[in-house]
Amino acid sequence: MVGALDISITKSETSKLGTLDLANIPFGKYFTDHMLVADYENGEWKNVEIKPYQPITISPANAAMHYGQSIFEGIKAYRHENGEAYIFRPFDNFNRFNKSADRMQMPAVPEEIFIEGMRKLIELDKEWIPAKKDHSLYIRPFMFANDDVIGVKPSDKYKFMIILCPTGPYYAVPMKIYVEEHFVRAVPGGVGFAKAAGNYGSSMYPTNEAKKKGYDQVLWTDAVEHKYLQEFGMMNGFVIIGNTAITPNLDEGTILAGVTRDTVITILKDLGLTVEERPISIHEVVEAYQNGTLKEVFGTGTAATISMIKELCYKDNVMTFDTDSWTISPEVKKRLTDIREGRAADTHEWLYKV
Ligand SMILES: *Cc1c(COP(=O)(O)O)cnc(C)c1O
User: What is this protein for, i.e. what is its function (predicted)?
Assistant: First the structure.
């Protein structure tokens, strides 16, 4: 019997792989040979297809472009020395994707499409992941409204897709951060916890203002008092004071529940640190800096894993850090990278075999 969610596969006749130097590839610019597409119509998912990577046709009245029902995910896969490929914690992204979908009044994507479709797609383009240190495959699942009607209402039709891009060694340069006290990213009751495209669009103006002041990113603070830390740009934030790592708690719905965040919490605990998920104010950070107990400040996310922060500017306080002397965040990054790339045992069962 042929099920509705059977995935049809059309292989590309040629591969672009030979034309690229994977060791020197810019992030997000080159895509693998295949992509996954599925349509949602009349209340059900259909036309699940893996086919050659190619442009798609969109109506000028496409509802996502006008009213913003558009969400995405970011995941990575790694190839181990034995040639096998593994996806890092895809079920966490799958669950988060459907939470984002729910908040944006979009349909849930079934596991057979999100996980099994991703697995099949990667299996097909496995050669695109070099079994080399610091190389991986970035996986971008996304869904957007696909009605061709101008009118503010949830769309009846949606498209779900997955595209893949190879990523080479990524050196995360320590960042300079400006503590933002005017613009906000997320408010309680808003969409901060969802990986909604619009969250990125709205962050660009404030980020550019910070860039004009000489900073790489903003530190978002709460919308009411501009006092409590939210995120560093589009990364979750950690502050290490003494032997305690502190990261903002998720309860208010203003923080994106990062998979890297959760992973780093586990590794920090493995390293013997105390981890606290709670509100942390910028005043507590400044005070710890002044009394010498502030050890490390960093952001976490799938793309860069860990980004150390070398400067934090809050009003007239410019806090600078000698990131070369840090020991905790480099150790966390090393442990995580070793697990992902197969050099250390996957004791927390984070890897999903392709
Ligand atoms: C994607 C994202 C993160 C990081 O999440 P990961 O699952 O660790 O990649 C953090 N903050 C925001 C706003 C994000 O969109």
Answer: Acts on leucine, isoleucine and valine.
Amino acid at 105: Q
Per CATH, the number for 4-168 is: 3.30.470.10
- Contact 259 CB / ligand 1 (< 6 Å): yes
Report how far ligand 1's centroid is from the alpha carbon of 1 (Å).
Answer: 40
CATH number of 175-340, picked from 3.30.470.20, 3.60.15.10, 3.20.10.10, 3.90.870.10:
3.20.10.10
195 CA to centre of ligand 1 in angstroms: 8
Task: List Cβ neighbours of 51 (8 Å cut-off, separation of 6 or more).
Answer: 9, 10, 12, 34, 35, 37
Domains in the chain: boundaries = 4-168, 175-340
Which amino acid is present at 323? T
- Give the closest residue (by CA) to ligand 1 atom 10: 235
* Kind plus residue range of the DSSP H or E element containing 98: helix 90-103
Asked whether 256 lines ligand 1 (CB < 6 A), one says yes
* Contact between 117 and 48 (Cβ < 8 Å): yes
> For every one of its 354 residues, what pLDDT tens digit does the chain have, with 9 covering 90 and above?
456 678 999 999 999 998 888 778 888 999 999 999 999 999 999 999 999 999 999 999 999 999 999 999 999 999 998 889 999 999 999 999 999 999 999 999 999 999 999 999 999 999 999 877 888 999 999 999 999 999 999 999 999 999 999 997 766 789 999 999 999 999 999 999 999 999 999 999 999 999 999 999 999 999 999 999 999 999 999 999 999 999 999 999 999 999 999 999 999 999 999 999 999 999 999 999 999 999 999 999 998 899 999 999 999 899 999 999 999 999 999 999 999 999 999 999 999 999
CA 167 to chain centre: 14
